[in-house]
Amino acid sequence: MAEENKNLRTPIVCVMGHVDHGKTTLLDQIRGTAIVKGEAGAITQHIGATEVPIDVIVEKCGDKRLADKFIVPGLLFIDTPGHHAFTTLRSRGGSLADLAIVVVDINEGFKPQTIESLNILKRFKTPFIVVTNKIDRILNWKSHPGESFLSTYKKQTPEVQGIFEQKFYDVIGHLYEQGFSADRFDRVTDFQKTLGVVPISGLTGEGIPDVLMVLLGLAQRFLESSLHYDVNGPGVGTVLEVKEEKGLGTTVDVILYDGSLQKGDTIVIGCLGEPIVTKVRALLKPRELSEIRYESKFQPIPKVTAAAGVKISAPDIGDALAGAPVIQATPETLDEVIEKVKSEIDDVQIQTDTDGVMIKADTIGSLEAMVHEFKKADVMIQKAEVGDITKRDIMEASTINDPMHSVILAFNVKVNPDAEELMEQKVAHNVKIFKNDVIYRILEEYQDFVKEQEE
Ligand code: GTP
Ligand code: MG
């Protein structure tokens, strides 16, 4: 690593894509081959993330002379399941992810969550690559585990190459329809103009060296200025998940993207009411697999430095919100930090109209994404909130006379049992709920409903 750039933090890479297209397998492969190569110690498991240091990446890419060319210390891959990770990973109204990988099953092609992922990335202007996964499933494909794509491709028969080309250019065509000029990664000269697409198999590891290489290239080119940070500055992060853990009570899984955090530090965490002010009781990381003799899955650590995933155990954090900021404070900065956390949450309490529909979503980030998409489609919004659908929500919606507005649009949330009960009663006969786990599907369903009403 070049000396003068030691203070660049590890870029955060979010893996996105449709269910079952192979996000987790890709990350397992990146982790796994390194372990096979006897470098297990070099890969750091974080809470909700995996860190791959630059040396390991360069080693995998096969050319050691590259080591000095790269200025980032490695890559931190976020592997939260499902495609919601990205919107949860918000920070300062933008996205926490520096880079992203969109995984597409080459045999299945584009799916709703593929399109959703692309929409989100477009909106945040996040540099990303697409991988077309599962090339090993192409009829008669001969796998060459761990090889670069071009190397394995050249060893296929012309027939197999032909089938591959057809499927691959189908994906390129779909990307074009979504407004992206895209091409196979090795034919891209300017990654700022053209989206790089890497064919891979998460299962056999074919194409993985290329993925790492292209990601590093993107990090170098687009991120250098945004990766400077202060190792000794206050810890700043985002809540990925709020979780009950046996023996620990409520914990928050946090991705720290700036500064550092220590046991005993005072932290401020965003929630729907007044921000939570508490003290870090323990910082925890996953225990290495070789240490399973311990009862707890977690191991306490005294300090973490960005970028990192860490589990925080602290009193009174039950109301913490996924997607909310976590900022370290000192007695001198406490008031200022509370204000900062509050204003970040308030920004999300979204500009609403005097008349319109009600929106409910599971996290701050998904709520923001929803409001954005609906406003773009000129849907009026009276209320937008994080949380499950309550009896009160149904009551409120039932008092609205306009049938287009006595509507609750729900993303990834549940209907509480008492709310469900109320829905069956006469007072709520006018209330409609549209629920889905793909935002634009909710929008489509609602627009169809509006059309029906107008007819
Ligand atoms: P969710 O987290 O549920 O959204 O799925 P995911 O995107 O993480 O997919 P996952 O990695 O769990 O893979 C889904 C299935 O596809 C598993 O059975 C994998 O073994 C299989 N799979 C993933 N990648 C490949 C691949 O490259 N080749 C083949 N043949 N199978 C694959
Ligand atoms: Mg998964």
UniProtKB/TrEMBL annotation:
Residues covered by the Tr-type G domain: 8-224
Alphabetically ordered keywords of this record: GTP-binding, Initiation factor, Nucleotide-binding, Protein biosynthesis
Residue stretches in coiled coil: none
Claim: GTP-binding is one of the keywords in the record: yes
Gene Ontology cellular component list: cytoplasm
Binding-site residues for GTP, renumbered to this chain: 17-24, 79-83, 133-136
One MF term in the entry's GO annotations: GTP binding
Physiological role: Function in general translation initiation by promoting the binding of the formylmethionine-tRNA to ribosomes. Seems to function along with eIF-2.
Record family assignment: Belongs to the TRAFAC class translation factor GTPase superfamily. Classic translation factor GTPase family. IF-2 subfamily.
UniProt protein name: Probable translation initiation factor IF-2
Organism: Methanimicrococcus blatticola
Top-level taxonomy: Archaea, Methanobacteriati, Methanobacteriota, Stenosarchaea group, Methanomicrobia
